[in-house]
Amino acid sequence: MSPPTDASSDIDSSKKRKHPHDEEFPKILGTEMLNIYVGKEKRHFRVHKKILCQKIEYFDQMFNGKFCEALKSTASFPENDPVSFDVLIDNCQHYVLSALRKAYVSEKWKTKDILKAMASNEDLGTDVLNLIRAQKPGTSPQDPRELCPCTYHIGQSTPCSDFFLTRPNNICTICSPVERSLKMSGDHGGKSSTESSSASSWKFLDKFGTTMVDIYIGEEKTHFRVHKSILCTKIEYFERMFNSSFAESSGFASFPEDDPTCFDVLLEWVYSGSLRNLAPGDKSKPRLWNPYQLFSLVDRMMIQGLKDGIMDAWISHDKADDALPGIHDATEIYAKTPAGSGPRKYMAYALHYVLTVMREQHARTDWSTADIAKALALNEDLCVDVLELIRSQRPNTSPKNPHLLCPCTFHSEKHSKCDPEILPKKKARKSGFGMDF
Q1: Which CATH code for domain 25-103?
Q2: Which regions of 64-140 does DSSP assign to beta strands (E)?
Q3: Is the Cβ–Cβ distance between 344 and 295 less than 8 Å?
Q4: Are residues 210 and 228 in contact, defined by beta-carbon separation less than 8 angstroms?
């Protein structure tokens, strides 16, 4: 079936979500902080109160009861081991952040459904069991969305073809910028391995530190209280902002023109190292975040690899829904994103495909000629990009559905081994995509 337009492109971020894993990041972490001092040297831990009290009843009673610690939001444990406490807090942090994805997975991947699928398909059962048996002891498989795209390509040679089973710790030389961007940074605040004999033991303190920054997003000034260390380590934009002579170096920043939901997704990536699922549990509901708005925010903050991850998530979501970006999205996409960017390419390729391939009645309804003409008239860049694609199409050929193109087509980081020959190269001039025509 030919893809319809994406009816869920307009997101109402003000709607209350029913599932716990759909809660906004500030609601999950809160803004109240606890100061905990551990050991004889009074090693300082600064922790979100919600995380600690939600996971450990002992702290819930201490900080939400009548104890003196509840009044001061401070506690001291001079006889405990700081390294052990660090491990405890790191596990609490990981538990709360991963609970979002676990709740989603448990809803969508029920054990009885998995058993039924494997019982009815011997090949599927064999493939899954082979993967389980091939997994190295003491390791866990990666999220398939974070693997090198070449893992699923046909006819690829080493190092890509056997990437999943035989090279789990290697980075594909073709797609390494994307792969690296989806991992948590290995930088622990600039400390050398010889600075302390127990430096590698401080998982929580090295990643998060104790200094917090307060960020206010949108017209309603949604409040995010974030660990400065991990924010500045993951995003250089904030490193320059909070560790410089800017006014924001005091620990406060405001972004009134940005979308709180998109910033919420960005922060989840900062803390967990992966993008929130774009699709809600219920397909009748709109997607959980706006991909081109998030792309615009990430582009402005110069997080190069994450832009490619956003495009992959967006196109995979649309492919699963058999949808394309709607013509009514065109103006906003071109207004919010720069020339040659992934969202602009995706929009132009989609429109090219609709105009020259899709002949069904629903396509003429969802993509009416009048709406297309209006969008092209209002946006010269869109018009030029689409016309260049039409004029460069080889005779007696048709453009492919954008979902079927190599993901690198819409990436910021270009890799010659992955790029399909979609457009013939000429020496006339360059389009807004940075491609020769």
Answers
A1: 3.30.710
A2: 74-77
A3: no
A4: no
In the structure encoding, which two tokens stand for residue 321, read together?
């829904």
User: Is the distance from CB of 22 to CB of 39 less than 8 angstroms?
Assistant: no
pLDDT, mean of each 10-residue run, the chain (437 residues):
47 40 59 88 87 84 85 89 85 66 56 78 81 76 74 54 38 43 39 41 75 91 91 90 78 91 92 84 77 94 89 91 89 92 94 87 82 91 92 89 90 58 40 44
- Please choose, from the candidates 222, 344, 234, 351, the residue with its C-alpha nearest in 3D space to the C-alpha of residue 292: 344
Q: H helices within 273-303, ranges in order?
A: 291-300
Q: Per-domain residue ranges for the chain? A: 25-103, 310-415
Q: What local confidence, expressed as pLDDT, does residue 171 receive?
A: 43
Q: What is the DSSP letter of 76?
A: E
Distances (CA, A) of 66 to 94, 99, 289, 314: 29, 29, 41, 49
Sheet holding 74-77, edge to edge: 43-48, 33-38, 74-77
The structure tokens 């809160």 sit at: 30
Whole-number pLDDT of residue 283: 66
One DSSP character per residue, 219-268 reads: TTTEEEEEEHHHHHHH-HHHHHHHTSSSGGGGSEEEETTS-HHHHHHHHH
Backbone phi, then psi, for 254, in 5-degree steps? -135, 135
In the numeric block, which tokens belong to residue 148?
A: 């090198």
Q: Name which of 216, 253, 217, 218 is nearest 232 in CA terms.
A: 253
Distance between CA 62 and CA 58 in Å, rounded? 6
Give the side-chain half-sphere CA count within 13 A for 311. 29
Q: Record the tokens describing residue 121, joined without a space.
A: 């398909």
- Complete DSSP assignment for 155-219: SPPTTTTTHHHH-TT---TTTHHHHHHTSPP---TT--TTS-TTGGG-HHHHHH-S-EEEEEETT
Rounded CA-CA distance 109/106 in Å is 5
Instruction: Report the relative pairing of strands 212-217 and 222-227 from DSSP bridges.
Output: antiparallel
Question: For position 102, what pLDDT does the model report?
Answer: 55
Q: What's 7's DSSP letter?
A: T
Report d(CA 356, CA 368) in Å as an integer: 14
Closest C-alpha to 267, from 297, 300, 231: 231
